[in-house]
Amino acid sequence: KDPRTAVLLPFWERVFVNGDFDVRYIFAIRNPLSVVNSLTRRDGFDPEKSFFLWAEHMVSGLANIGNRPFILLDYDQLIIDPEGQFNRLANWLGSPLDTEKLAVYRSDFLDEKLRHSKFSSADVEGNEAASPLVREIYSVLLNASIDIVSIEELQNSSYVQRWKEEIERIRPILKLCDKLSDRIIKGKTELSAQEILLQKC
User: In the prediction, which pLDDT does 165 show?
Assistant: First the structure.
């Protein structure tokens, strides 16, 4: 659920190597516009910042997975078609799907209310706050989640490295934007305090 887990993968990788575990990853993706809406409601972030955070966490996770086996699952598709997604997952794991447990999962756990927003890939493409980098990452990952782009192609191509380099290139600009935003917020707070003092005079 928390994409920041991806940032801790280098630590867990050392644990997995030392323990000689057979490790496979299920990499969940979510429409970045849903993430943007969530961060706007919870933290008041600007859309541009939220889109960047989404991209940063996705790329960080992919980079830290490296050549480990993994599969991409799309959150919206899991809500819409749980049977299809779990069949896909079961085939990847080489394990039969337990239809009885799937029925319980569908009836007792899945709830359309869990999905607070519904957006399509076209909504992301048409959003001015979404950079070309965000659009490309989401498009490629979405295609990989429906097997149009293979995981092997995603791992062996220059996609992830190129995305990582682009994020590092624009990071200083975003840090500057954060500093300026903090100054504006501080200035507004000080101005409000001054207005209150003037009203009391």
Answer: 93
Supply the pTM of this predicted model: 0.83
Helix locations, 67-158, DSSP H: 75-80, 82-93, 99-104, 121-125, 132-145, 151-156
Q: Per the structure block, which two tokens stand in for 53?
A: 């955070």
What is the C-alpha to C-alpha distance for residues 196 and 73, in angstroms, rounded to an integer?
52
Amino acid at 67: N
Helix axes 9-19, 47-65, angle to 10 degrees: 20
List Cβ neighbours of 78 (8 Å cut-off, separation of 6 or more). Answer: 85
Angstrom CA distances, 128 to 21, 112, 125, 135, 176, stand at 44, 28, 8, 11, 21
How confident is the prediction for the chain on average, in pLDDT?
Answer: 87
* 74: region left, alpha or beta (phi > 0 left; psi from -120 to 50 alpha): beta
